[in-house]
Write a structure and sequence with these properties.
The protein is built from 4 helices and 11 strands. The chain is of the alpha+beta class. The chain starts with a helix and ends in a 26-residue tail after the last strand. Bound molecules: the ligand Nc1nc2c(c(=O)[nH]1)N[C@H]1C(S)=C(S)[C@@H](COP(=O)(O)O)O[C@H]1N2 and molybdenum atom.
Length: 210
């Protein structure tokens, strides 16, 4: 794509109301994280769900792949200023897991903390994590997510075009190398949230820093 084409596409996104304030369109997918890329060990990998749930669960990689799957097209907005549009993410919807009874929440559950290999965490209110624009993603644009973008599972949150009713936080609210979800009665600010990033991180309100 030429710089002119990128500019044309960006103008289209502005006209369609899809470019949040202070963002610019990118067509490459930058890699951003703290610490090393985490390697998956399929024999040892598991996915845990604990906290304010009726029964804590642990899924092996084999079991995780049997969970109901869904696909959602998202515009993703990074706090550093890049936005990427129409990314096709595929994986497991938390909302579907709750509705189908794979996860039985206690009424005291109010926040969801994503826990990643390597210790990264990030927090979301339960009602945001239950929206259609949050996914435990395994695939991007038909391919398994690459190691540097979070293989085998990462949290993903982005904007569904036309759905301004959904809260859309910045992309750091999705943990790469995701290994578990903790449901909590109290909020637990995550890695970046403890270091000055905004706790709610709404892209339309430009909530970058707290
Ligand atoms: N495990 C883990 N997940 C993470 C991070 C991290 O440091 N570790 N960084 C976050 C930040 S700050 C951003 S901007 C996005 C970047 O995702 P990408 O590298 O796929 O673009 O991942 C988020 N998820
Ligand atoms: Mo970031």
């Amino acid at each position: 794509m030429t710089p002119f084409e990128r500019h044309q596409l960006e103008r289209r996104m502005i006209i369609e109301g899809r470019l949040p304030p202070g963002q610019r369109l990118t067509v490459r997918f930058p890699v951003l994280h703290y610490g090393p890329v985490q390697r998956m060990h399929p024999g040892h990998w598991d996915f845990r769900v604990w906290g304010e749930v009726e029964t804590p669960v642990t899924w092996t990689w084999h079991e995780f792949r049997q969970l109901p799957r869904t696909r959602v097209t998202l515009d993703v907005h990074c706090v550093t200023g890049w936005s990427q549009f129409d990314m096709v993410w595929e994986g497991v919807s938390l909302r579907d897991l709750v509705e189908a009874g794979y996860i039985r929440l206690k009424p005291t559950a109010r926040y969801v903390i994503q826990h990643a290999d390597g210790g990264y965490t990030t927090n979301l209110p339960l009602d945001v994590a239950l929206q259609e624009n949050f996914l435990l993603a395994t695939h991007l644009n038909g391919q398994p997510i690459s190691p540097e973008h979070g293989y085998p599972v990462r949290g993903v949150i982005g904007a569904i075009p036309g759905r301004k009713d959904l809260k859309t936080p910045y992309f750091w609210k999705g943990a790469k190398w995701l290994r578990g979800l903790e449901f909590s009665p109290v909020d637990k600010p995550g890695f970046w949230e403890q270091r000055g990033y905004h706790n709610e991180a709404d892209v339309w309100k430009e909530e970058r820093f707290g």
